[in-house]
What we know:
Blueprint: H1 3-20, E1 45-53, E2 62-64, H2 67-77, E3 88-90, E4 101-103, H3 108-115, E5 119-126, H4 134-138, H5 151-160, H6 171-179, E6 191-193, E7 209-210, H7 229-247, H8 254-277, H9 290-303, H10 305-308, E8 312-320, H11 328-352, E9 359-365, E10 384-389, E11 398-400, E12 424-425, H12 426-437, H13 444-447
Helix pairs in contact: 1-7, 1-8, 3-11, 9-11
Amino acid sequence: MSTTNLSRRRFLKSSAAVAAGVGITGVAPAFSAPKVGSFNSGNKKALVFIMLDGGNDSYNMLVPYSQLHYAEYNKTRSNLALKHPRLLSLEGFKDKQNRSFAVHPSMPEVRDLFAQKKLSFISNIGPLIEPVTKETFKNNSAELPLGLMSHSDQFKHWQSARPGERVNQGWFGFMADSIQPNPKLNQVPMGISLAGRNIMQDGVESTSYAITEKGSVGLVVKPNRRQSSDMRELNRIILKNFESLLNHKYENDPFKQTYLKLTRKAQSLHEKFRKSISGNRVPGRFNDSPLSQQLKMVAQSIKSSEDLGTPQQTFFIRYMGWDHHDELLVNQQRMLRVLSRGLGEFQKCLDKMGLTDQVVTMTGSDFGRTLTSNGNGTDHGWGGNVMVMGGPVEGGKVFGSYPNLTLGNSNPLDVGNGVLIPTTSTDEAYAELALWFGAKSSQLGNLFPNLHKFHDFSSGDMPLGLIKT
Length: 469
């Protein structure tokens, strides 16, 4: 086999990896969303979204701690209830019902961030088309999210903020359509994904740039003086062939033209991203878990935002494995430990870099789970608890309305087996974050078409008050 043929085969494998870095397929969008309009852009800000893929049992993540309310939790959760002495108390906060709260024993970093007022919870949140009561749910008069309690549908609704439709575009993407229209060939998108292509960062025109915890994906040939003459020659041929392919014109083959355009863009972005983050090391220690390493790369990307030419950035991370129908206590102890450590390391790193007030991180999950045990785990539910973290956040609080954890007729939110109707829509939280990021109140209706059913943002009042004023 000739050296040239060998280099071509290796190049083809490399070019496939290059193409994976860009979430462009040439497929037309599923629908045409209205333009959001001009944002208050230019300020250095980042929104980080961590999807706990599978449906986190979040009523074992955020637990009532005051004795009366813990007893209610303990009775309902049965064999899945966490022991009171092991819980990590969240000091300094009581809700309107005089309830205090605690977090899972595996989450000391989250407990500390709450105490430092850099993290809060949003309770009983979920995708909603309109407010739902137990009565309207039971008599089928409420308009419910499509595929309620289905992994694929609820996973999609959390990203699209359109639970009445099955669409493949999301609100991060719609913001990018307005903030970063008509980007240049080597313009890194404002949406950077650590989970490949995703719905949340896809807009009508925009898409995400997929990287790994080690950085961007592309063709890199490193010359090395210690290499043999044969290896140096092979490197020269690879680069020559690569440049030849990128400059070639397939005038009579639209498929090859499209693929070549994609490859050019991917390699251009790879070279831009690699050069921009090179040397921009971040302070602090991150453990070896994939989540922590991904958050380290997010921190490095935020630090490099000026070099990347993207002062406003969104990030999407997917932490999989939360569908705990079995072995809930064992699995959640392990996974919440990973999550808490990662959040603690990430926020500490941002603080050391002086970026505390420029980044907000939020978790989400397909759905909450049943309050009742199925024997050794829990089944699919609806409303659940999430976290929001960062300097701009009104920390040390539990936003929304933490529900009564009794079962049956005495609980106006329980529609069976402890499946709870959400009392806060994802739209309400998302809208407050979008305003912080640069949206105007007049633009929120295009980002979140059901928002007006829950709150009138034109008044200037916030339904939750997540962000410091």
